[in-house]
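Sample pair:
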Amino acid sequence: MDTRIELTPTSPEVMHLSATDPVLGELIARVGDISQRLERDGFNSLASAIVSQQLSGAAATTIWKRVEAALGGVTPEAIMGAEDDTLRGAGLSRSKVSFLRDLAERTLDGRLDIAHLSSLSDDDIVAELISVKGIGRWTAEMYLIFSLGRPDVLALDDGAIRATIGWLYDLGGAAERSDAERIGEAWRPYRTTASLYLWRGLALRRAEEKAAR
C-alpha cells in the first residue's frame, strides 16, 4: 500500500503556512490539494535521487524507468551485477554509474545501514549519507522528504525552490541561498510542506506561461 503525504486546506501544516505567510498562502490556494507518494524502499529512493541529480523532472523520470527496465528492478545486487555498458545504455553518465555502485557496495557490505537511518535525526541522516560517493546535501534532503517524509526540510540548494522563492517574493531572479533560508524560517516546522507547494507552484507557473504563448 502506498504511503502518502496528503495536503488539503484543512491540513494543520497548510493552515499554519497560510496564516503565517500570506504570500505563500496565495500560492497554496492556487496549487490546491497535494498527494505525494513516499518511496519507502530506502535504496530505491537514494538511487533515484542520484539519477535525478542536475536533471529536469521529466528527464530524470525517463532515465529512471530505463534503468529499472535494464536491471529488472533496482537493487544493490542488480547494480553490482550489471555491466557498465548496460547502465550507460540506460542514459547514466559514467559518474552516476560510479555513484550507484558505491551506494550498492556500501549497502551490501553494511557500511550504510539504510534501515537504521529512520531512527536518526535529520542532521545525522545527512551526515551518514554524504559519506557515500556522489551523495551531497541535496540528495540527502530529497531522501528525507520523499522517502522518510520528514516534516521540516527545506532544500536550499534546489534550483527550483530558489527560483520559485525569487518569483513569489519579487527578488528579481532566483533567490540567493541566504535569502531563501531567511524567508523559509517563517515556515518552520513545516518546511517540507512549503517545499512541495513551491515545486508545484513553479510547475503551475510554467504551464500557465506555456498556455499563454
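The chain has a mean pLDDT of 95.
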